[in-house]
Each structure stands twice: as C-alpha cells, then as structure tokens.
Amino acid sequence: MEWRDRWLLPEYFKSKGHGWPNRNNFGNQDFFNNFEGTRWAWMVTERERMLAGELYDAGDAELVEARIIARERCQQINASLPRDEAFRRVLTRKLFASGGDSVQLEPPFRCDYGTNIHLGQNVYFNFDCVVLDVCEVRIGDFVFFGPGVHVYTASHPLDAGPRRTQEFGKPVTIGSDVWIGGKAVICPGVSIGQRSVIGAGSVVTKDVPDGVVVAGNPAKLIRRID
C-alpha cells in the first residue's frame, strides 16, 4: 500500500466509529485487519475504489482513458449504417462486459465505460438510451428499454466541497423480462425484480419487486401482474 493512500484512512475509520489511528498503531498491519474498512484501505487505484462504491477521483488518468475508449466505441456504433449489423455486433462485443453478442441497440446509445455493463440474452435498447456505469449494471434476459431511458449508477456527495473532486456509485440490477417505458430514469442502487413493468417517464428511486407495474415520480406501485 502506498503511503499516499494512508492519508485517506483516518477520516474513513472515524466515520465507522473506530476513532483516529495514532503513531502507535498506524503502521501496524494488525490494526488494519481489525476494521471492516480493510478491503477499502488496500485499494490502490481509483478504478478499484469506483467499483467498490467508495469516493473516487473521476479525473484519474486510467478512468479518463477508459471513458474515451467507450465513447469512441459508442460513436462508431451510433454512426454505423442501419444494414451493417455485423459491424455493430463486433463493437458491442467489445463495449460490454458480457451479452454483447445478442444485444440490439437503436442508435444513439451512450455509456461511461461499457465494461461494467453485464447483459443477459436478447436485451433491447431503443433510441437515445444512456447508462452511466461507474458501478456494475446487471441486466437479465429479454429486458426491453424504451426510448430515452437513463440508468444511473453515478452519484455525488451532498457537501459541495468533496463534490468538486470526488464522486461515488451504487450498482443497479434489472431482472429478466422487465419492460422499462420511454424516458424512465433508474437511480443509483436500485434493483428491479423480474417481469416488472416501469411506466414511461417514471423516476425509480427504490427497489421494485417481481411482477409489478410501477409508475410516477417517484415511482409507486400501480398494480401486480397476475
């Protein structure tokens, strides 16, 4: 672990109720092993912190380069000819962590990294969909996204000071056979159960169980699907 990373630990330990490390225990490995923050403490890259849902610097060079690659691939997909399905398939296999061999995209499509998006079989994105995948987005089989659906894992601190330089994320999970209506927004940390339907224009801020219809801002239960 780099010494530069150790300066991040005291505030984290204090936030967990463990108090401040001191000169007698700060360099002792046993001290770190006694805290639930050990896994966090040993993360040495901004990418690792990002994927773990911790505060991280989005301006890190590795992350900037990864976003550029994703934007280039999205731009190639979005500029492809309608008949050039084979070319798009090559690009979607590279863009997504999994499922790129069967996904269908109606350009334009945009995402942050692509490598954090795990797709099941036969996922369909209609026009103008956006996925901000700073954390994992897991999508089941036969999930349909209406036009302009946005899926967010990215979030920011409420305090203005840290918000200037740091952000964090929460993963999103969408079960199989879900239909998400146009212009709906799926917020960070949300899980949507299988076979559920999200009404057009909804803002989903809480988990959705299996087999229900939800709609509204914020989305609320409308009825159950028999």
Structural topology:
Elements: H1 3-6, H2 9-15, H3 29-33, H4 38-41, H5 46-51, H6 61-79, H7 85-95, E1 104-105, E2 109-111, E3 117-119, E4 124-125, E5 129-132, E6 137-139, E7 144-145, E8 150-152, E9 154-155, H8 160-163, E10 168-169, E11 172-174, E12 179-180, E13 185-186, E14 191-192, E15 197-198, E16 203-204, E17 212-215, E18 220-224
Parallel strand pairs: 1-4, 2-5, 3-6, 4-7, 5-8, 6-11, 7-12, 8-13, 11-14, 12-15, 13-16, 15-17
Antiparallel strand pairs: 9-10, 17-18
In the CATH scheme, the class of the largest domain would be Mainly Beta
Number of contiguous helices = 8
Rg value: 20 Å
List the uncertain runs. 1-14, 18-27, 35-40
List the helices and strands in order: HHHHHHHEEEEEEEEEHEEEEEEEEE
Please state the second-level CATH architecture of the largest domain: 3 Solenoid
Q: How many β-strand stretches?
A: 18
CATH homologous superfamily descriptor of the largest domain = Hexapeptide repeat proteins
Most strands sheet: 7 strands, mixed
Number of structural domains: 2
Helical content stands at: 25-40%
Mean pLDDT: 87
Distance between the termini: 54 Å
